[in-house]
Amino acid sequence: MNQADVSKLMSQLRIAVRPTKRNLKNPDGPEGRLLKLRKTVTALVKHERIELYYNRADEARGYAELLISNAIRHGDRHKATMELADYWLLEKQLVHKLFKVLVPRYENSNVSYTRMFKAPRDYPGMYYRKSVLELRGNPYPVLTPDNSQNRNLLHNVLLDEARKEFRREKLANLANKLAAETENATASTTATPAQAPVTETQTEQSKQAEEAPKA
Amino acid sequence: MNINVRILTKSVAQQYAFKRIVTFSTKPTQQAAAAAVPQQQEVTGPTVRKPIVPAHYRFVYPEFLPDPKVEWRNAVREKLERLDMIDRRRQIELPEFYVGSILAVTSSDPHAAGKTSRFVGICIHRERCGLRARFILRNVIDHQGIEVVYELYDPTIQKVEVLRLEKRLDDSLFYLRDALPEFSTFDENMEAEPLEEGAPVPINDIKVVLRPRPWLERWERQNLLGVANIEQYIKDKHRKSAEKVQKPWEKYDLMKQYRATIPEEEQKEIFAEVHTELHTLELQRKRNKRKRTFVKPKHLA
Amino acid sequence: MAQLLLRNFTRAGNAALLTKGTSSSSITATSAEPGSCQLHTTPACCEIRKLARLRVVDNSDLGKRAMAEGRPPRCIHVYNKRGVGLIGDKVLVAIKGQMKKGILVGLKQKQRIKQPQFDSNNLVLIDDNGSPLGTRIHVPIPTVLRTILKEKTLAKGADYTKVLAIASRYV
Question: A Gene Ontology MF term for this entry (chain B) (predicted)?
């Protein structure tokens, strides 16, 4: 290979592509390898999330991505694409899913159509690396931990501090209020006109304080 | 100080209002994750306007596309090569041609009598990319088959003429070496056959006649379209072994195709870079040709 | 042995030569078209080494007869240090039971850029002084030969440029 093949035109993949393929050891050679990958791609389209060995998942991922991108690019009226879908999806009802569900789902997407995660492996057991392969926008709960709730995250630290400050302020206000009331009790006749605005601001602050934790 | 803290509290509270705040937990919350997915699908900012590159450019200028082999890619080298190629194209007219076209190449040759040599022949193969792009011409002169390899961007090439612009049924015509000599015999003083402007490049569906075995390659294994009498010379054992080496699954092997091509987005980028230059060169060439045809006096009576 | 050899046929270019020991009735049947389809044991090797078969392209009597009989000359020595004949090299050939010298004027092997590559390994017979046996070469010869043969003439003392004089055409 020293000249790009110009007879075919393909969209760029949004995933990292290895420079060479993995052979996925198979007694039937390249044909058997493709059959293996066809099974994986079919399962991926069917279940939308599968757990399997890393190498096989990584190989199948590219094929699944290209199948979807070809389906988006040519639509279901294109004969060659239909043949491709027919070859890659062993269960034929999934061809409908590809063109009617997945194509509309990913039409306006500008990220990859699939995601892959490393999965823990059993011990003791096979030493092969495992992974989880899923289609984006699947109905299952997400696998990634939500780091936004980590207390060491900067915004969480700030938020905590702000909350503490607010509480301190509120206590100080309460203390002030109590002090003022005791003063008022002693000198009620002189301080009555000045009391009204103070109470207003205090009520506002207390409202905010109530709202914030609720939200 | 108090006011500042109050404002901050308010704004932060508003910002995270849609989330239930669980301060010291690292467990995934379903709402947060659900909110995260559509965020990624945001459309990026306004698209940059680029010149529209004709779709046929990848056939006309295949050597501008780099080698898809990842280990050999180098963005800087490719860019510099493209600049050099354009520079060369400003100096000399390198016309559009395909495998199967008949070319005449004039190159300077220190050994020749007039210091130039001209070779006419059919292009049987095109290979390599960038500045190393080259092609093979074949002709039969005095009943002697001769092949010459030329580099397209060789500075010693003085002129490349396309005498007949056409394609053949196959991507490379090495089988002409095993065909009867009349199929690769072309007259050296052949006149250029101009093609109508804007007309598609014709495909010559001539089927060549091979001579009997032994051949240089096992043509029966290569699914050639441009060979007429391959069945005549092969036996059952050849047919069987040819069947054995067929790879019908390769047309479904999407990743193999992907690794052998340059993706469309990348092609657009490359051709957008060189398009304006190539286009102006094309226009200039057309103008020159018209001028030349206008000046040429007609032979009357 | 003969049967083993029979499996490998060749085309005219690297044309075949059979020794008398191996030739039999079945072999003559295969070489029905003289000079086009004959026996060959090393089809992939296009280099001119010892025992490589060549094609005489001049009109010398000896060469014409050898080619017409379908018994083209064999290279039995290459006069350079590498043992592989390149264009313009002098070789010793066995032709019709005689030893003759010749100059390679066209090769099937891969050539440099812009230099022609021929469909057959062409040879012009010369005598010891470098003057050709024939009076005309009936195929084109590469222009590089001009420079190469001139250089060799200076180096060796024999006048090889007479080969250039009988060339009909350069490519």
Answer: structural constituent of ribosome
The answer to whether B161 touches B129, Cβ cutoff 8 Å, is no
Q: Which of A127, A144, A161 is the last residue of a domain?
A: A144
How many structural domains comprise chain A? 2
Q: Classify residue A69: in a domain, yes or no.
A: yes
Whether C and B touch (3+ CB pairs < 8 Å), yes or no: yes
Structure token digits, residue A118: 């490393």
Digit-coded pLDDT (tens) for A14-72 = 999 999 999 999 999 999 999 999 999 999 999 999 999 999 999 999 999 999 999 99
Q: How far apart are CA A11 and CA C169, in angstroms?
A: 52
Query: Are A55 and A108 members of one domain?
Result: yes
Q: What is the CATH number of the domain that holds A35?
A: 3.90.1030.10
pLDDT (mean) for B236-262? 95
Burial of A110 (0-12, 13-18, 19+ CB in 10 A): exposed
* Interface contact B24-A151, CB threshold 8 A: yes
* Contact present, C17 and C27 (Cβ < 8 Å): no
Residues C10 and C45: their CA atoms lie apart, in Å, by 12
* pLDDT for residue A208 is more than 60: no
HSE-CB at B262 with a 13 A cutoff on CA atoms is: 22
Place of tokens 């993995």: A22
3-state secondary structure B150-190: EECCCCCEEEEEEEECCECCCCCCHHHHHECHHHHCCCCCC
Domains and CATH numbers, chain C: 47-165 (2.40.150.20)
H-type helices in chain C, by residue range? 2-6, 25-30, 61-68, 144-156, 161-165
Q: Complex ipTM above 0.85?
A: no
Closest CB to B265 among A11, A84, A148: A11
DSSP state of B219: G
What are the structural domain ranges in chain B?
Answer: 57-294
Residues in chain A with CB shorter than 8 Å from the CB of B2 are 169
Rounded to a whole number of angstroms, the distance from the CA of B269 to the nearest CA of chain C is: 32
CA-closest candidate to residue C117, choices C125, C105, C129, C127: C105
**Assigned domain for A184 exists:** yes
| Statement to judge: residues A165 and A83 lie in one domain | no
Verify that A186 and A165 share a domain, yes or no: yes
Measured between alpha carbons, how far is B227 from B209 in angstroms, rounded to an integer?
A: 6
Print the domain residue range for A123.
29-144
Same domain, A206 and A122: no
Q: Do residue A54 and residue A124 come from a single domain?
A: yes
For B96-119, what is each residue's pLDDT tens digit? Answer: 999 999 999 999 999 998 999 999
* Final residue belonging to a domain, choices A123, A144, A165: A144
